[in-house]
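Why do we bother with holo predictions? Because pocket geometry can differ from the apo form. Keep that in mind while you read this record for ketopantoate.
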Amino acid sequence: MLLPDTCPVASNTSAQPALSWSIVGHGAIGLLAASRLQLAGYKPGLWLRQPAPVNIQFQQQPLQFLPAVPPLSAVLVPVKSYAVLEAVTTLLPHLTSDAQLVLSHNGMGNIEQVLPLLAPQQGLWFLTTTHGALKQAQSILHTGLGQSVLAPLNRAAQAHSGAVSAAMDCALGPVALTEDIQPFLWQKLAINAVINPLTALHNCHNGELAQPQYQQHISAILHEVCQVAAAAGYALHYEVTLERIHAVIQSTAANFSSMQQDIVHQRRTEIEAINGYIVAQAARFKLAVPHNAQLLHLLLQLQQGYGR
Ligand code: KPL
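The structure, written out:
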């Protein structure tokens, strides 16, 4: 289903000058963000391994994106968790001294690795989103109208708050700005830790997980995630989180999860940044998480040899 896109034509209402945006890759969420930015009057460029113009249809409109031209002052990095470090390392020599970088991916564990790579005036952000997008041939479909939470992760980001949140509001809004992204990341991690591996292993739509035969397993996985989150200092309420998971199962019932799609297309999955992160944190706190460990093991086995 196509959804209306409502971002107003760009009027930069922030006190800071609008930034010139680049988007890394040509994944569905990145192209959705690029399309919405372009329709709002920004002129986003694409940062690709092999720079070339990209033509797509978005909401019956033909759009063209040109390769991003360094130096880059603002970059959205909507790449898979395992590709973040390499993407950022490749970008580093091409960034302005006060560039703003926005990470957006499933899973946890990358922020800590990226922060020390940046210069003192370079800002790091995280954006977590529930928008859904699908790339079909030359078209981008906005399949799930969602929202996003955006947070600055260092001091250099705070100085550019107005300009970054204005652009992200157009790209993947509505955006709620928060000072602390961690509780939102844990919530999303809990959702992904249940839905992604189960749909990949059972090769099913998200909606299938509402069936009674999955409930015991869902409960066991989630109990472990809540224990680890609590040990890490982020209390996840079991019942509330379970309700959220079921709300996502309902609202995305007809969709396939990203991990199910990765397995079907024989691509590497984000299992290491999702259940793998839980297993690694559990080890730090000497907690047993057998259900998450088993999912990690099974998915690693399944994806063996894909795209390493
Ligand atoms: O984020 C997702 C994903 O597939 O990666 C969910 C929320 C599970 C929706 O499919």
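The chain has two domains: 21-179, 183-305.
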